[in-house]
């Protein structure tokens, strides 16, 4: 049994063979785009949880297979490093080994160290103000300046700082030129929007001021909305035009198209082996058909869909003997994962009338003519199982209340019919408490 998907295996020779979202075509388009530039910053924008990391790792291998040098750096995993420049330089080690460029990389490293060391006094001052107080700042500044004087006297004025940056760019340009490729080096920067705001801004500034040289293209994997929030947080202003601010650093923005819900759901359905336990819903559709409709209607991310199927797989594995209505089971797993406050409200049994349930659940269910059957079935089953054991409602009471629901008349009638059918089909063996016990993993593995 698997509890999560983990990293998608990437075949070095055929990197997109494991892609279930048909994204190879986008990699081919992007490859043509980066081939047109010898220096730029390209941002691949897509919401968190839509598989950007997997995509760019596959694309990285695709580029390597097509004669590019391509590096990958996850800044979020490495934001403990005081300066992102250190992490950037560290990624060049692989190319140094590949092309025997230890001497050239040493020159890049030495030039970079001068730039990093020159920032020491300002860094120490900021830390002192935050943790010690203004009274100690001057003393610490003096000590820090003394250390800097010992390390590098030449960084005391603006002109020498510019020379250090120039030295770094020249050393890096020389290093890249000897990497034996007529194509630009592609440097992937992943998870930028997940870094703390100060670090994210520093990464952008380092790229702009130090890496604007020929034959290197930076590819930023971002959730633009979240990165804009980080920029606003860094500057402490909600009114800041963060999108325009980012244009200072990003030359090209590419919006990765939304994935196919059907393709990804089919993959999860098979991967988590849900179909071996809960396949058909009894009205000509599979549980996965219901999932595709539900997930697409609610615009779930890939990460949310994975969590739902992962939890469903675990719950089903815990309770191999207990019979459970598949549609209600998956719908309430969806609520637990994506809208836990509503799931909890059902456990607390705060709803007193069928109309209360319709009001809270209707927004999550499609109501167009083609999918109205899903709406009526979920509402009918929920009303039936929720009230038949928690309130002294007879099935006739529930059917009568269903007919008068504030909802489309035809849907209200179908809900009433579903209540009648479901009430007599489960014969009291399947209760709402039993449903939540399964979902909450309160039953021992059988």
TrEMBL record:
One Pfam entry name: KAP_NTPase
Organism: Prevotella herbatica
Name listed for the protein in its UniProt record: KAP NTPase domain-containing protein
Residues annotated as domain KAP NTPase: 23-272
């Amino acid at each position: 049994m698997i509890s999560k998907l983990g990293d998608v295996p990437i075949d070095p020779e055929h990197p997109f063979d494991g892609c279930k979202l048909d994204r190879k075509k986008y990699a081919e388009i992007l490859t043509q785009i980066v081939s047109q530039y010898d220096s730029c910053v390209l941002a691949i924008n897509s919401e968190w949880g839509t598989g950007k990391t997997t995509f760019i790792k596959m694309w990285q291998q695709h580029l390597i297979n097509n004669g590019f040098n391509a590096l990958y750096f996850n800044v979020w995993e490495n934001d403990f490093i005081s300066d992102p420049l250190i992490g950037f330089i560290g990624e060049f080690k692989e190319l140094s080994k590949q092309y025997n460029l230890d001497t050239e990389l040493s020159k890049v490293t030495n030039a970079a160290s001068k730039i990093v060391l020159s920032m020491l006094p300002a860094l120490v001052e900021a830390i002192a103000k935050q943790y010690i107080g203004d009274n100690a700042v001057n003393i610490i500044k003096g000590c820090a300046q003394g250390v800097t004087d010992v390390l590098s006297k030449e960084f005391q004025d603006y002109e020498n700082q510019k020379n250090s940056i120039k030295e770094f760019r020249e050393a890096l340009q020389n290093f890249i030129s000897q990497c034996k490729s007529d194509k630009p080096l592609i440097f992937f920067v992943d998870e930028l929007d997940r870094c703390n705001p100060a670090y994210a801004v520093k990464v952008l500034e380092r790229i702009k001021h130090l890496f604007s040289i020929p034959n290197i293209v930076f590819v930023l994997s971002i959730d633009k909305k979240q990165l804009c929030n980080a920029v606003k947080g860094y500057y402490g202003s909600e009114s800041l035009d963060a999108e325009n601010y980012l244009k200072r650093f990003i030359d090209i923005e590419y919006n990765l198209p939304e994935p196919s819900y059907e393709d990804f759901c089919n993959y999860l359905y098979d991967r988590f082996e849900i179909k071996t336990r809960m396949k058909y819903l009894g009205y000509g559709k599979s549980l996965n058909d219901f999932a595709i409709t539900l997930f697409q209607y609610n615009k779930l991310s890939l990460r949310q869909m994975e969590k739902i199927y992962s939890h469903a797989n675990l719950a089903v594995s815990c309770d191999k003997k207990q019979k459970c209505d598949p549609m209600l089971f998956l719908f309430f797993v969806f609520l637990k994962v994506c809208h836990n406050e509503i799931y909890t409200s059902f456990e607390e049994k705060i709803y007193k009338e069928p109309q209360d349930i319709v009001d809270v659940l209707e927004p999550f269910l499609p109501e167009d003519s083609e999918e109205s059957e899903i709406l009526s079935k979920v509402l009918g089953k929920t009303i039936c199982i929720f009230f038949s054991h928690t309130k002294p409602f007879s099935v006739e009471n529930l059917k009568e209340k269903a007919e008068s629901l504030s909802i489309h008349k035809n849907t209200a009638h179908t809900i009433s019919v579903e209540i009648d059918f479901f009430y007599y089909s489960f014969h009291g063996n399947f209760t709402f408490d039993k449903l939540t016990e399964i979902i909450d993993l309160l039953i021992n593995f059988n």
